[in-house]
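debug: dumping io for the single-chain case to check the tokenizer round-trip. Nothing else runs in this session.
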Amino acid sequence: MFIERGRASLRPRATAPRPAPRPAPRMAGPLLALGLVAAATPAVATENSGTHYPVGLDTVVSGVLPPPGTYLFNYSVAYAANRLNDSNGDSLIPGFRVRSAVNSVRLLQTWDTSILGANPVSEIVVPLVYAYAENSRRGNQDKFGIGDINLAPFQLAWHSPSFHAYAGPRIFLPTGGYDRNDVVNIGLNYYTIGMSLGMSWFPVKELQIGTKFFYNTNTRNSSTQYRSGNELSMDYVVGYQLNEKFNVGVNGYYYRQLTDDKVNGRLFRDGFKGEVLAVGPTLRYNLTEKVALTVKHQHEVLAYNRPRGDRFWLQFVIPLGTPGERPVAKD
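debug: decoded output
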């Protein structure tokens, strides 16, 4: 599928004459997908393509939160990109290169009570970030430290034999280091408030079709007076349980910025709306009945006003309390 600005299409874009290239914006730092996990990546959609939600994270059991108990989730992701695309999908900045490695710890509590037929869930996520960026205009720099912490104080999780879902708000806090003059940053210097909706459907016991939506709005960066537009992210997975130990599938994400970027209340250039589509394989191995290990790869096949690269994930969950039985699909 070819995604053109403003619509989706199954045909390649027409090779019309290109307008003269516009000067690239000044880059104060990279994209930071900080939240449940982060993937630092410089770009130009939103402010320096900064986005708090970690696209591609929820592609294991997208709509299933665990039963009552306390859980430790760990997410490790590496991101690499050697290309920054403009609004036509062409390379924008010569010598562009970005690398990041992030480990995020997510402490989750599912409460043993019922509200509207669902279990309430609370969580906090703390990311530890290493980020490196370089380009021919501004040189290179790397940073290491705690990124932007996020909280989901009240979510609701519903379960049935073949369908699971959860929904709730999430807020990202500007706790990571930030300097507007640096090439790379591990914080975004603004708040993000969003709403999550995750769903998993098991048409048969072995097959899962899952998706997770996250819609968010951003506050203004007080250092630059830049306000990034509203964003919509969709993680997706189709997985099949081969046996008691192994689950294989296809996973990825689609991200799109829905409103324009503004500086001092005025439109920034053409709005710099970003868009990206990624796909790749996923493999989950059940170490025990309650502990599973997942590895994933996500290749960005299309990108507009964003870097185009690859994400590699390693994630697992360990129950810390007495969780009871994890909901599973039944015939």
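debug: round-trip ok. The mean pLDDT is 84.
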